[in-house]
Here is the input.
Amino acid sequence: MSAPEFTFDLTPARRPSLADAGGAAKINRTEYPPNPQTMVTAEEINAMEKAYAGFGTVVPSVMIRVDIIAGVPTVMAVASPRSALITGSFTPFPNGIGDFSLFFAAGILPPTNFPPQAYIIEDGSWLQPVVLMPSSTEFRVKTRADGGALTDANVVIVAY
Here is the structure.
């Protein structure tokens, strides 16, 4: 059994399982087996299905670039296996200096495997940003200068 659609594009989105990939249970015909030099074999298909499911467990579900423009967080770019995600899929909200939230619709991202992370993408001396998920539809990011004070900074958020 395989998924009728790419699982990241389902609502709710989810990561692919081995069953979604086809189950890795293909077998070659015994009467007329494929020539492994010129034809795809069941073993090759099974290995690709296992790889697809395996990669699905570790690929980021989304990467979001947020620039702070005159104190306002602005989504500049989005990369995701989900084909329909665009910058407008995320609504930024300024919570204060060095603190903003990104809201998004329920079900557009699969549940996270690991806590989301953020990386500061500008020059300077910074502490590691903190990314919280107060709910399943919000990323909250706090950025601090090296001295510890909350300070606006451009970031890339990565969720797995």
Observations:
- The CA atoms of residues 125 and 146 lie 5 Å apart.
- The longest helix spans residues 42-58.
- The radius of gyration is 21 Å.
- The helical segments are 18-21, 42-58.
